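User: Hello, beginner here. Can you help me understand these amino acid letters and fold codes? It all follows right here:
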Amino acid sequence: RRGAQAGRCRVRLAESAGRIGGAAVDPDTARGRAANPLLQGLFVPEDEGDETVSGDLQVDGELPTWLRGQLLHPVAGRWHINGERFQGVFDCQAMVQGLSIEPAGRCSYRRRHLDSENLRRHLSRGQVAARELHSRPQLPSAWDRLAFALSEPAMGQNAWQMLNSFGAGRLMASMNGSQFMEVDPCSFATLGPLRYTDSLEEDGQFFYHAEPTEDARTGEVICASLRFSMTRLRFELVLYCFDAGQRPEPGAPVHRRQLAVVPWGGPLLPLLHTTWITEHYLICVASPAKLDVGRAMWNELEWVASGRFTGEGRMIWQRGDGTTAYVISRESGEVAGTFPLGEDILAGHVANVFERPGPEPGDVELVFDWPANSSMGAGRGSDPFELPLGADDAAEVFWSFEEMTYRRVTICLASGDVTMSAPRFAERVSHTIVNPKVSMRRHRFSYALSVFGYERHRLFKLDHETRERTEWAPKLGEALKSETVFVPEPGSDREDAGVLLTWATDMSSLTSRVVVVDAATMRELASIRLPESQYCPVTLHGMFLHAS
């Protein structure tokens, strides 16, 4: 298996693997594997077994004595059911993986499938049996498909995009189109969807979540979700939070506190990536990436009538609409202003947002650093955000997310003036972070992941005062395919005191290691290796849970 995967790293795109979601495709044939780079080598989702555990991992170098806890990531698991392939990458069944650094420095690794209702239904039927983002089950008649469509909940349970800690060490997994699922932070056992004691969804169920954001000062987790209000007959963006004082018992009901409700257009709905926060404001950036509600409904009707689901045209890049920042008061919940940013920009992960005094007395400026892409829809069709399993242009779509430049945007709330420096640094970057200790405060350093194919992966330390940069590079042939995590050194006030953690995988041997990089010097301190029988697939948003 491992030799075949290593060979697939060098396989270019080949013919399409036939009708996806129709007749079963053997995933182990050359035709099935070569159809998409997202199913080759490092990109192959993990599909063997429901749980993997490895102990006493090899450590090269010396780990900091204070670095104790868990590095957690969601990963893509099963990508087919008995040979019937899911239609899109985000249909792969969710897994949670964690690398633990124990008090004595012993390291272990665990990976486990999320025991979701979606996965149980797929496995019990031996085929695709639940609605996923891109996939629909094969049902014998239009009546069966209609009954299925009417009975499915607004959101499923396949949550493999984000992990967040809330309350006293509780852990939840989420995805844009999934319910929030609680996971035991030690065993990764699935505790089920979160149960709520509030009435936020009495006026309409949520059907889309932006990525949650944690307030490092208060411990609150800020969320933004879309719903259709049954009383006001409009689409709304609802901003709310999980307070830090949630009950600590795993599985206990959770209370969500509403922060704001914003009318959110329609039938073309801007899709938020995340909500940015400062001490006094919430910032929601609406890009030209939009959900066409009418087209999405038509896609479902086409499937009911014909049994064939494509999803074509439901997610679009509305060229010329520009990108707009909505600034909302955390105290009143009112929109303080809307600020056009002047061009079509796909907003990536913000490194940091902070407030500073404006040019006039009492004025406030919001400053945020982010990687952004202004060419996302250039030269493509209307749907640049699908990541299909079996499409000839999947590589182009996937890599376009890494064609981003680092920008600094300043919004003056009083005058409405918006200034943007682009690029702030010359390199293209796909992910940027700061030390969590300076979250919502003016920062001097930020850290960026820069990706140019497989040969030039880098981590950069960027000094915003001197414009100097320091870099760390992986070994020749290694790819960095996880978002970097900054772990601050306890007890230190230095902004660059801590380490960067990232997964590196050798593309020829498919062996993986977690690299520990000194955030001050960008020197590699240590690495923790998985056994040769395992490797880490592409992961999304990571986090570190301290042992305390």
Observations:
- The longest strand covers residues 364-373.
- Residues 1-39, 377-384, 390-399 have pLDDT under 50 and may be disordered.
- The chain is about 10% helix and 35% strand.
- The radius of gyration is 23 Å.
